[in-house]
Amino acid sequence: MSATLIAVALSLVSAGAYASAAVAQSRLAGRTDPSAGVLRLLGRGAWWAAVGLNAGGALLHVAALNYGPLTLVQPLGALTLVAAVPLGARAAGRRVGRTEWRGTVLTLLGLGALLLTTGGGSAPQDTLTLPEALGVGAATMAVVVGLSRPGARPGLRHAAASGITSGVASALTQTLTVAVTDRSGGPLFSWRLLTVALLVSAFAMGGLLLSQTAYRGGLGAPLAVVTLANPVAAAAIGLALLGERLQGGPVSLGLALLGAAAAVRGVILLSRAQARGADRAGADAAPGPLDPVASRVVIGSPRCADGTPLGASALGAGADPLGASPFTVGAEPLTVRAAAQPHP
């Protein structure tokens, strides 16, 4: 089996693990008070299950990066959203809608077009130098701080920050993996590898926490933003610093652009469909309006069936008691009677 096929197979399994983790995180976020801190999450079994799924997906992703370039492995991460659609629908107890299927097909077609332009990529050889790794880390931290500031749409901004940190962690992981598996006889441990390992750990944990915060508003749109930001960040590093290139000439470039447009359209459809599904579920779970119950207000003494107060004689027909005036309270007529006062 070629290195490219191994990278694709590992990426597919990794996407399934990430999708399961995203669904678990979304359900956990929906049951957790937004004001709860990180320590509260550490006591939840569902949180550790999501961490385990993310860790498994990350290990498979690392293995895929050892066999394929970033421009091949990272676009396959969009399959996380495709796998999350049926998993999320099943967890919510509903069927997958027509819009979700359309988004899934468009995403798969777009990824197929992208794979045709990157399928000729070989196993990665270049790695980031220590100054390059530090520069990438500093630039990423600046972007994350800017996206995490208070303001409108915090969920989408946190999702973008999560996708960027995860993509940068993938690029740094490739450097770490290639350097560790290098058989040229270089030192296994060095300041460069130690620094890159620390950056990978920090960005991976930061991306996990940012995604947990982003999923408080639902799974669809935040996961779509994470899915798009992740490969863009990683591919930018691969093309700018690692010497990776898209295969083919202008035809392949045009095919890649069409594939990217189709994938973006598919992700947008999926995010909209999942957002509508979340709104519909919230509307179904909301309590309905209470049935109006007629109020019965009785002011005055108890009355007989003919309306005569107990202990009083019936009034003659057409008689108007002292200042009697009818009012209506609720569904019942209300009669307020002035008490007769003796004249001095």
TrEMBL record:
Transmembrane region(s): 45-67, 103-122, 128-147, 159-179, 191-211, 223-243, 249-270
Keyword presence, Membrane: yes
Keyword Translocase: no
Keywords attached to this entry: Membrane, Signal, Transmembrane, Transmembrane helix
Signal peptide: 1-19
PANTHER family given in the database record: CONSERVED INTEGRAL MEMBRANE ALANINE VALINE AND LEUCINE RICH PROTEIN-RELATED (PTHR40761:SF1)
Annotated protein name in UniProt: Magnesium transporter NIPA
Organism: Streptomyces cavourensis
